[in-house]
């Protein structure tokens, strides 16, 4: 029996009303009743795709948007949404293909600018920052008063440390009505890079006012005001490194002249550690895998732990890790078999941990490392306090503090090497690399 066209239209209209009123179950039920032969089938599939996307059911969403496109291959919105779904699946090549396909299908300026913004997001995911900026310039030229375009443009500028230009774009987005906590938080980050502390605090406080309590923003406000906190919250670390992931290695190695992993390997060689059989390594706060890359020639296995999924994805691409775990470092240390590792390495990690008592207690008592293991870590040095929260949001530790922890928890310092851990605004940041081991009975 043929399904009447007016029935399909009525069901689709109801589904759309249910969706707009957030009654997703009723919206889905109405859509599923629309038959494949109906002239509303493509629109129903699109709506089901939107619902699945809202529910973060990415595979189902992709399937529905493809059904929509099987009915209407010129529907640019289906391609844009499919691109967003593939982006969330970390299938960036497919996301790029869908996004590029949408562009010639969107004739109206609003529609074309929308497609360009999505393309820029994928280019950003692929660390193609300059391409993303060019794409967004086109979007802004089409729709100069698009707050969304100015915000994304400012965000990409921020990722490339063009902080002054980022401030201009982010403020323009706010002026055009995009006054969300996220925009103000990014504006605060840009002000921090420009050393505009008063403005940064005001922007971060506004982000809390708009979006409610935010441990990440509170941490940075405390840092800027010189108010000490014991540890950096997980959400601050995760968000910071997810944001930095795409441009991380260029910024760290080229701009900040960071080479702690190489220095660690050099010290291991100079101190005759890397002799005999290959070692089993636990890389704490592994990031994009720079330590794993440096230690790969000397390792039998490397396990990496990090809070940032985007960093872990990049580490996985290097192919040097036996296992990668998304976890808080202390939580991981309490559950993993510590006797399996010869080296536990934390390169440029303790600067985000603050107080180190729990770390040392875990490694010596809660889940102790084996007597032959070496814990290798770097710190930013403080001459003022044992543990100091800096305006950068990082922590610095004094040599006396490390000495005291080693003495209390039964570690001997085998190597202490003073070094520059990075440069910032042309200034060398003083730090040290430590090799410590459990003390052996006299």
CATH architectural grouping of the largest domain? Alpha Horseshoe
As residue ranges, the low-confidence spans are none
Cα-based radius of gyration, to the nearest Å: 26 Å
* Strand percentage: 5-15%
CATH fold call of the largest domain: Serine Threonine Protein Phosphatase 5, Tetratricopeptide repeat
Regarding CATH, which class of the largest domain?
Mainly Alpha
CATH superfamily of the largest domain: Tetratricopeptide repeat domain
Mean pLDDT: 92
- The share of residues in helices is 55-70%
Largest sheet: 7 strands, mixed
Task: Count every helix, treating DSSP H or I runs of 4 or more residues as helices.
Answer: 21
Strand order of the largest sheet: 3-2-1-4-5-9-8
* Domain count: 2
Give me the secondary-structure category. Answer: alpha/beta
- Element-by-element helix/strand order: HHHHHHHHHHHHHHHHEHEHEHEHEEEHEE
Describe the SSE topology.
Layout: H1 5-20, H2 24-32, H3 41-54, H4 58-71, H5 76-88, H6 92-102, H7 109-125, H8 129-142, H9 147-159, H10 163-175, H11 181-193, H12 197-211, H13 215-225, H14 234-244, H15 248-255, H16 260-270, E1 279-284, H17 290-295, E2 299-306, H18 309-318, E3 323-326, H19 329-335, E4 343-346, H20 357-366, E5 374-380, E6 387-389, E7 395-397, H21 399-409, E8 411-424, E9 427-438
Parallel strand pairs: 1-2, 1-4, 2-3, 4-5
Antiparallel strand pairs: 5-9, 6-7, 8-9
Helix pairs in contact: 1-2, 1-3, 2-3, 3-4, 4-5, 5-6, 5-7, 6-7, 7-8, 7-9, 8-9, 9-10, 10-11, 11-12, 12-13, 13-14
């Amino acid at each position: 029996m043929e399904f009447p066209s007016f029935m399909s239209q009525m069901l689709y209209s109801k589904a759309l009303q249910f969706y707009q009123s957030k009654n997703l179950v009723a919206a889905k039920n109405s859509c599923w009743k629309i038959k494949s032969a109906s002239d509303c089938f493509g629109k129903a599939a699109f709506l089901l795709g939107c619902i699945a996307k809202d529910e973060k059911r990415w595979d189902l969403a992709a399937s529905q948007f493809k059904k929509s496109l099987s009915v209407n291959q010129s529907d640019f919105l289906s391609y844009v949404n499919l691109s967003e779904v593939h982006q969330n699946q970390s299938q960036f090549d497919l996301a790029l293909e869908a996004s590029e396909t949408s562009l010639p299908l969107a004739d109206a300026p609003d529609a074309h600018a929308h497609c360009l913004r999505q393309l820029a997001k994928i280019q950003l995911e692929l660390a193609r920052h300059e391409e993303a900026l060019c794409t967004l310039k086109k979007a802004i030229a089409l729709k100069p008063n698009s707050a969304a375009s100015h915000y994304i443009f400012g965000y990409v500028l921020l990722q490339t440390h063009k902080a002054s230009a980022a401030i201009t774009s982010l403020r323009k987005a706010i002026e055009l009505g995009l006054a969300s906590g996220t925009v103000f938080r990014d504006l605060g980050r840009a002000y921090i890079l420009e050393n505009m502390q008063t403005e940064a605090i005001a922007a971060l406080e506004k982000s809390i006012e708009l979006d409610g309590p935010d441990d990440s923003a509170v941490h940075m406000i405390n840092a800027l005001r010189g108010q000490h906190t014991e540890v950096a919250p997980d959400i601050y670390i995760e968000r910071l490194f997810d944001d930095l992931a795409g441009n991380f290695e260029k910024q760290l190695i080229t701009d900040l002249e960071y080479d702690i992993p190489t220095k660690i390997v050099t010290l291991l060689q100079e101190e005759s550690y890397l002799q005999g059989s290959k070692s089993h390594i636990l890389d704490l706060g592994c990031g994009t895998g720079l330590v794993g890359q440096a230690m790969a020639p000397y390792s039998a296995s490397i396990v990496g732990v990090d809070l940032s999924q985007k960093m872990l994805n990049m580490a996985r691409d290097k192919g040097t890790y036996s296992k990668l775990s998304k976890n808080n470092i202390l939580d991981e240390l309490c559950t993993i078999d510590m006797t399996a590792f010869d080296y536990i390495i934390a390169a440029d990690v303790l600067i985000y941990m603050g107080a180190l008592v729990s770390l040392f207690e875990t490694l010596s008592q809660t889940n102790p490392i084996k007597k032959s293991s070496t814990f290798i870590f770097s710190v930013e040095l403080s001459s003022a306090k044992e543990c100091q929260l800096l305006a950068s949001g990082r922590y610095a530790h004094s040599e006396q503090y490390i000495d005291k922890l080693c003495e209390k928890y039964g570690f001997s310092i085998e190597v202490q090497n003073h070094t520059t851990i990075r440069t910032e605004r042309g200034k060398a940041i003083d730090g040290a690399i430590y090799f410590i081991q459990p003390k052996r009975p006299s």
